[in-house]
Amino acid sequence: MKKRLKNFYCFLALTAAALLAAPCFGQTFSENISDNASELSQSLLPLEVFVGDEAELRYSFRSAVDFFPNADLVMEEKIDVAKFPFRNLYDSLTIKSAFFSRNDMEYVISLRIVPWRPGVIEFPPFDLFSILNLSDKDKNKNISYSILFDPIEIKSIVEKTNLREMQPPSPPFIIPGTTYVIFAIVLAAVLLFALLLRALIKFGDIRRWFNHMKIMRAYRRNSAVAIKKIKKLLKNKKAGDIEFCASLQNITRTYLAFRFDYPFESASARGVRDAFQKICIGEIPPAIENSVEDLTSMFIRTDYIRYAHDSIESQLYPPAEHQAKLAANERKSLTDMTLKAINLFESDGESEEELSVL
Question: pTM for the full model?
Answer without folding.
Answer: 0.43
